[in-house]
Queue: 3 jobs
Job 1
Amino acid sequence: MPAVDRIHLHTLPLGAWSTNCYVLTCGQESLIVDPAAEAERILAALAGTTVQAILLTHAHPDHLQALAAVRQATGTPLGLHPADAAEFGVQGDLELTDGAVLRLGDGELRVVHTPGHTPGSVCLRFDCRAIVGDTLFPGGPGHSDTPVALAQILASLRDQVFTWPDDTIFYPGHGEGSTIGAVRPAFVAFLARPRSPELCGDVEWL
């Protein structure tokens, strides 16, 4: 079986911000990534599986509004990066530190720490795909609250995300994804252009 088919990904856009919750399954095992809202829809997508964990790409409220209900219903551990646990006061059970590997059936996910949108933002790589939270969108980086945060997220993209192969499919926290190769030219051009030292917020490549 090709590696890309080993883990099945199901996308649920949920809540007022259409935040993407991802349900990953491999065999009879499943993982929940970013239980954004509408717990009943998330739980329905898990039917017939054994939930191994709930994972957060970051701890902003729009990514975890259904966390308490889903955690209570499944009784599974919560994983997030320790920097976001400290920043947002979210108590977790698993530390999603850079390079950590999580097993799901006969597949695995690798944690990539990509600070900038939040101190503990992470991406989750598996097969030739990645869930990137609010680190990357087809049209630009994730929101940055300060110029320092923008510099940090751009460094995360340069040093981590855009080292991935061009055929890597990425799935963001909101909206549709793309491939690393499709976005790379705009990212490279953005880095090459001069920009204001005060630039931050909702930044676009073009």
Job 2
Amino acid sequence: MAGHSKWANIQHRKKAQDNKRGKVFTKAIREITVAAKLGGPDISSNSRLRLAISKANSSNVPKDTVERAIKKALGDKDQNIQEITYEGYGPNGIAVIMECLTNNKNRTVSELRHVLLKHGGSLGTKGSVLHLFKKVGIIKVLDTTEDELLSHMENIDLIDFEIIKDGCILFTDPNKLFEIKKYFEEKSIIVENEEIVMDPITLINIDNMQQEKILNLSDKLEEIDDVQNIYMNVNLN
């Protein structure tokens, strides 16, 4: 069990984005489009697309909208969207990772730099903070107690887990995320909220005033159209 709640921190950081329904739809569709363009429309062989569709479904993106995004990706050969991860620093020297999908790198860099500087941070160089995070898969298993989860441990390979009010949060190797999801589904156990995130290796503790500044920075970064995901190595209350 983790000494701090990774899930609570992840949920807290995502709250502002999740409250902006239109923004969530736009980001979900963009991710589906890029995933389909890079790996094709078959979710059995394109795990990125499978994950993107799953996240879109959990955000209540209409099925026909998802289908149109896939068709657009396959038909628009001239669409030039790149996926780029930018690194930087926020107030109090916290590390910030910004995953972006963009058709104009100069615009994206300019907007990111402007927001970071305005909020007491700066844009970093490649590799400056990436080593402070590790990529993990996350999945929520509903209506499952700790004892019930432990009974499955021989059959699944977890990095970590947390017990929450309505079930368990599992942290996995990203490559095993869907394998574990399938395992529970075959046992008629409900799973949801699967995703792959950049998890901080260690967290920086801050006071309430500092937290307000950092959440404001996160909100402003989320408002940039090209930004898909933001990760910070900070412990939010």
Job 3
Amino acid sequence: MIDRETSASSPMDDEKPPSANERFKSRSGNLLMMGVVAAAAAHYALFAFFPTLKADVIDFTAEEIESVELPPEVRVPPPPEQIARPATPRVAAAALDEDITIARTDFESNPIENLPPPPTGARPSDVPSYIPRDVEPRLLNADDLIEMAKQRFPKGLRQAGIRGRVGVFFFVSAEGVVTKAVVQESCGYEQLDNVALEVAKAGKFEPAMIRDRPVGVWIVMPIDFTKT
């Protein structure tokens, strides 16, 4: 005989314990409700206690524009012209006869002792005298002087076979120009002496220098007249 009390199942025995998912759902609902309440309270407090914001007054009026006088236009000078290249030396096609020779102008060929001292009260350019310098003047147009002396050689003296040497004092100014020429030693023929003076006055020099400053000086230069 079966006992009813033992055979009948208890209703508590049929109920299963809640799963983790069911427990999370029931718990999350409560948490959601609490979050909504907290958010509402935070927004209320934000609007209730936050300081009132006021917009600044913006002025749209513009300042009056003043006219300003521009300074006068400054004209920039044009750049300097390009420096011309030195001319290429040209060799003469015609051979020049070496009738006239111009001696060297250094101290060895023309010792200072040949120049007399200047007289008292005279200017250096008045009479031949020694003028101190550091750099001697340099003749620039020797070929032109040779050609000039050749052309002005008196024809009668040339045909007669006359030759000679004329010693000439040159005063070379600070600009390199011969301003005065004096016969130092005649060759014995006045016509040749005059030609030598003309040739001397046509000379062009680089001026003598003393302490980087050009200075006028006297130099001695013999001019030789020889026949061909």
